[in-house]
Amino acid sequence: YAAKRRQSGSMVYESALDAGSQEALSLLSELRRAIERQELRLFLQPKVDFKTGQVHSAEALVRWEHPERGLVPPMQFIPFAEQTGFIRQLTAWVIEESARFAQQARARGLSLRISVNLSTRDLLDQELPAKIAALLGRHGTDPSMQCLEITESAIMDDPQRALQTLERLSEMGFKLSIDDFGTGYSSLAYLKRLPVNELKIDRSFVMAMERDLDDAKIVRSTIELAHNLGLSVVAEGVETGKAWKLLAALGCDEGQGYFIGRPVPAAQLLDWLPRWKAPDLGDESLDTVFA
Ligand code: C2E
Ligand code: MG
Ligand code: MG
Ligand code: MG
């Protein structure tokens, strides 16, 4: 990063005077060392199939166990990693750790599809599809067991290039998912062209659906839209039994949220999975929300 800045002339001198970017440089070097020092942690959050109550997939969510700052949540370093280009190394780390986890799970007779979040920079990297394939190959993970989540805004940054990368990933057999659906700026015209398999309804709608009729209608329409386009649909932010029942009644395919399970260290999920039993909630009448 410093070398890159130096190439761009006097920039580096100007910014060195600025305490903010001095801090940025030290954060970047700490982040670089975080991989070598094994301070990154792979957390996983289960996704439940509403029809069967079973868990067939989980999302990888990275954390940084900083020696002084403690467990740092992704929103405090992912945007920075994205700005500095470090995200490519970080994504590679998450993919490889996920593949290692999937291998451990298979050894215990558990078959899990893992979703990994990609960011804008990843999508602009022409080498990404080959890199992912190589990392998964090392751990014997089939591409169909790997899902990649992309937000609408990451796609809309450079739609042409993003589409090329996504098409390549799709041809290679990876599953693709649109994350935080409903909060970005993509149009339905793009959605139609993207080779995706899944929509994830943003948690803001799901968490509000029990008390706000408009949110409930957005959730209902998104499920219908996804199914009409032949896509499966996942609800994020399932925090209550009632949300689970409503989503199941609306035909939503999968759910993810604190009611089912919080993101936990990968090893912990291995112990959790065999003990998971879907709660017996009974049915929910849609009239309680859509009266
Ligand atoms: P996301 O991909 O939309 O992930 C879902 C976020 O919602 C996670 O936050 C998760 O912990 C949280 N969540 C799950 N269930 C519930 C719930 O029931 N209630 C509430 N209130 N929240 C819930 P987290 O782990 O803090 O991650 C935040 C974001 O950071 C992710 O949003 C994703 O955009 C990004 N991120 C995390 N890991 C990675 C990564 O490895 N690579 C990249 N590029 N981004 C990542
Ligand atoms: Mg995600
Ligand atoms: Mg999401
Ligand atoms: Mg979200």
Automatic annotation (TrEMBL):
<feature type="domain" description="EAL">
    <location>
        <begin position="24"/>
        <end position="277"/>
    </location>
</feature>
<protein>
    <submittedName>
        <fullName>Diguanylate cyclase/phosphodiesterase</fullName>
    </submittedName>
</protein>
